[in-house]
Amino acid sequence: MTTLIELTAAEAASQIAQGAISAEGYMRACLERIAAVEPDIGAFAHLDPEHALAQARAADEGRRSGKPLGPLHGIPVAIKDIIDTADYPTECGSALLVGRRPVADATVVSRLRDAGAIIVGKTVTTEFAYFSPGKTRNPHNGEHTPGGSSSGSAAAVAAGMVPLALGTQTNGSIIRPASFCGVFGIKPTHGLVPRTGVLPLSHNLDHVGPYARSLEDLALVLDVIAGFDAGDADSRPLAVRNFREIATAEARQAPRFAFVRTPVWDQAEGYTRDAFEALAKSLGDDCVTFDLTDSFAEAWDALRIIMAADMAHNLGAYADRGGDAVSDVFRKLMAQGRGFNATQYLDAQALARGLRAALDELFKTQFSVLITPAAPGIAPKGLESTGNPVFNSLWSLTGLPTVSLPLLKHDGMPLGVQLVGASNDDARLLRHAAWLVAAFG
Amino acid sequence: MTTLIELTAAEAASQIAQGAISAEGYMRACLERIAAVEPDIGAFAHLDPEHALAQARAADEGRRSGKPLGPLHGIPVAIKDIIDTADYPTECGSALLVGRRPVADATVVSRLRDAGAIIVGKTVTTEFAYFSPGKTRNPHNGEHTPGGSSSGSAAAVAAGMVPLALGTQTNGSIIRPASFCGVFGIKPTHGLVPRTGVLPLSHNLDHVGPYARSLEDLALVLDVIAGFDAGDADSRPLAVRNFREIATAEARQAPRFAFVRTPVWDQAEGYTRDAFEALAKSLGDDCVTFDLTDSFAEAWDALRIIMAADMAHNLGAYADRGGDAVSDVFRKLMAQGRGFNATQYLDAQALARGLRAALDELFKTQFSVLITPAAPGIAPKGLESTGNPVFNSLWSLTGLPTVSLPLLKHDGMPLGVQLVGASNDDARLLRHAAWLVAAFG
Q1: CA A283, CA A272: separation in Å to the nearest integer?
Q2: Which domains can be identified in chain B, with CATH numbers?
Q3: Taking residues A182-210, what's their average pLDDT?
Q4: pLDDT tens-digit profile of A270-288?
Q5: Which of A176, A319, A331, B378 is packed most tightly, with the most Cβ within 10 A?
C-alpha cells in the first residue's frame, strides 16, 4: 500500500479534491516525515508546522464550503530561501540577512498559493545561491553533498518530506542537486517563469524551477508558475501552454534523440562516460551523436563573465560591508566580476544569443531532444563543496530548458540523465522525458 | 491656395484616398521641390526619382482597382540611412559601408509600406549616427548645422521635400534636429517602435521616431510603426493605442504642465532660459516649476557609459579595421567604451531604470507633461558640429517619450519646445502638445 508521503502531488491533489484524504492529514504525514528525517538531512532553513497545519485546515474548510479548487489545493510545497515569502523569513543563505522578512510573496509563490498550494517552509540554499554550502546532507548518504545551490529543495523532495519544492538555477543549481539527490527537476526556458521577488544574481542567467518525484508533477507546477509577468523584464509574452496535458499525452513515436558530449566531456567520470555511451547506444536508430561546433567552447567563459559581473553588480555591496559574515569564495567572485570590461560582458551576452539561436535552429531540423549528463558524476563525498556545474553551464547560458531524470545509479548513488529541449518548448521536453522514463525507468 | 507640398501627410492621404489628387501628382510635386532645394540642403544620401514615381503610379493603380487603402497610401516618406531598405543602399554615413545593400526592410519600413507609404529615398546621417557630420545644411540658414544624427530627415521635412521622415535617437538625434530645423519630431517611449533592421548603436538607448509638419502626422506614423515585434528584445507586449484618435481628441482642460530646468540648465543660452521662463510664466496656474532630485545629475554620466560601451561592442570592429575611413571622434568613443567596467555599465543601467520609475511615479500624481528646452539654443553656426544633445540625454536614458514643437524663434532660427510624457503614454503626450500648440502656436 502506498503511504501518504509516497503519493505524487498530482495523486494527492486528486485525492484531496475528491475528499478521499484531507489536506490536514496529508500535511500531518509530511510534517511527521520531516520531524523524522530533518535532523539528519537539514533541508529546511525555516519551518513552521503549526502555520502549515492551520493552512491545511483552512484548505479543508475551503473544500467543504464548495469553493472552486486550484490544481494544487492542499499540496505542501517547500521554497528555496532566496525566493520571497511574506509569511516566512527569506535569508538567502547569508548571515547578513538573518531575520529578513519580505513584505510580499514572489510572483511564483503567490501563483502557487492562488492554485491552493501550502508553503510548508523555506529550504536551505548556499550563501547567496553561490558555492558556500549550507547544512543540508544528501538523503542517499549523509556524507555526500546534496549539490547546490538549491540543496534543501532537492533533498526535501528526495527524502519524501514534501512532494514539491522550488529551486533556482544560475549556473547548475536546479539540475545538479536533482541529479545528486535522485529526483526530477526542470530548469525551464529562460524567461518562462518570472523571477519577480527572487534574489537577483544575474537576470541573464537566473531561472526558477520545480523539483518533484514525477514528470507529471513538474508539469503541474509549470502550469501554475509559468507565464508573463511585467515585473520581470525577461518575461516574454508567449501563449501559455497546457504543460500537463502535453507532457502526459501518449507519445506516438520515439523522440529524435541526439547524444551530445559537449566540450567538457573529459571532465565527466569514467563511469559517467560509460553509462551515457551505453544509454545512447541502447536507443539505437532513435539516437544520433551530435558534436557541437567550436564556438560552443567559449560558452563557459561567457557564463563566468556574465555571472560574475551581474552578481558583483547585484550583490557586491554585501561583500564590501559584510566582513567575516561573507565567505572567501563569494568575495573572490565579487572581485572577479568587478574586473571584467563592459565590452567583454556584452560580447558574452551576444555569444549566448548566438549559441541559443544556433541550437534552436538545430532543434527545428536535426533532433528533438539532447541527451547529456546532468553532472560529471554522483554527488561527491564531503560537505565542503556542492559539486561541479560544468555540465549545466551551457544550458544556463543559452536558456534552453533542461530536465534531470533519476534513471542511473553508481555505487548506490543517483546519477541524473539531463535532457535538453528547444527553447519555449518545455512541455514537449517533458513528454520526450516521459518516453525515456517509460523505456528505461 | 495651399500647394501640394504644403499639405500635411494626413491631408494628402485623405485627398489621395478620395481621388482629389493622385499619388503620382503628389510625388511629382515632392520630387520637384527636392530637385529645387536639394543642391543647397543635401538632405538625401540616396534618391531614385523614377523608382519613387513608379511606386506612386502603382499606388494610383491600386486605388483604381478598388483595393483597400492603408492610412499612408501614396505618401512619400524619407528614411534615415541607418534604417535598412531592400530597394536602396543603407550606408550608415560611413565610407566603410558604401554600396551596402540590405536584403530586407527594417520592420518600420515594411510597416510603412504595408500602410501604403512610398519610400522616396534615404536621408543623410552622421557617421554611424554619432557626431561626425554629413553634407546636410540647415534649411533656415545654410551656414548653420541641421543638427544630428538624423540631419537629412529633419531637413527634408523642414524644406518641404517630403511630408514625413524617420529618424533615430540614441542621445539627442531626433529631438535636436527637430528643434534646429523647426519641425515636429517625436522620440517615442523606448520599446514602443521596434528597431529590427536598424543599425544597433545601443539597444538600451536606441529609438526610432518620425518627423512631420503637424502633430497629427506624427500620430499617423506612430499608428503604423508602433507595436510589438519579437525581433526586438526591448519591444514590449502592450495594447496598441489609436494614437491619431487620442492625439487629436479635443482637450477638455489644460494639461498639468511642469517646467523642469534639469541639472544642465546653465548650459542653455541666455535667450533660451529667458524664453522658457517666460513660457512657463505665461501658463500661469497650469504650470508648476519642478526640480529634479540630486540623483538625476548622474544621468549624463550613465548615458555616456552605456552608449560608449554598447557602441564599442556593436561597432568597435569598424574602428579597428577602418583606418582613415573612420573619424577621430568615433574612434575616441570606441576607446572610451572599451575602458568601462561591466559593473559601471550595470550600475548605469540600474540608475536608468530607477530614474524612469521615479519619473513615472511623479507623472501619476504631480503633473501630466514636462516642459524643457529641446536644445541649449538655436542651431549653431558652422557645419563641423551637429550641436549639443545635453537637453536630450536624460530622456534617452530613461526612455520617456518626448516631442519637439517648433514654437519659438531666435534670430530668425527655430528653437524647439520639448515636452516629456509618461512612459507608454505617447498618445496623450501628443494631445498635450496639441493643446500647447493651439494656445501658443
Answers
A1: 17
A2: 4-247 (3.90.1300.10), 251-298+351-440 (3.90.1300.10)
A3: 98
A4: 999 999 999 999 999 999 9
A5: A176
Mean pLDDT of B345-357: 97
Distance CA A362, CA A430 (A): 19
Q: How confident is the model at residue B240 (pLDDT cuts 50, 70, 90)?
A: confident
Judge if the upstream peptide bond of residue B132 is cis by omega within 30 degrees of 0. Answer: no
Kindly list the residues from chain B whose CB atom is less than 8 angstroms away from the CB atom of residue A342.
305, 309, 312-313, 337-338, 340-342, 344-345
Window 203-222 of A, Cβ < 8 Å to B: none
Which residue of A238, A346, A353 is the best one to mutate when testing the B interface, meaning the one whose CB has the most B CBs within 10 A?
A346
Mean pLDDT of the region A153-159:
98
Catalytic residue among B22, B94, B132, B149: B149
Which band of pLDDT confidence, cut at 50, 70 and 90, is reported for residue B2? Answer: confident
pLDDT in tens, A318-351: 999 999 999 999 999 999 999 999 999 999 999 9
On whether any CB of chain A is under 8 Å from the CB of B56, the answer is no
Does residue A291 carry a pLDDT above 60? yes
pLDDT in tens, A69-86: 999 999 999 999 999 999
How far is it, in rounded angstroms, from Cα A330 to Cα A316?
Answer: 9
- In sequence order, what are the residues at sequence separation of 6 or more whose Cβ sits closer than 8 angstroms to the Cβ of residue B369? B255, B256, B257, B258, B419, B420, B421, B429, B432, B433
At residue B375, the pLDDT reads 98
**For an interface test with A, which of B196, B229, B310, B346 has the most A Cβ atoms less than 10 Å from its Cβ?**
B346
- φ, ψ (nearest 5 deg) of residue B209: -155, 160
Range scoring the smallest mean pLDDT among A234-238, B140-144, B377-381: A234-238
Looking at residue A270, its pLDDT comes to 98
Cell of A440: 528505461
Question: Is B194 at the interface with chain A, CB within 8 A?
Answer: no
- Would you place residue B120 in the very low, low, confident or very high pLDDT band (cuts 50, 70, 90)? very high
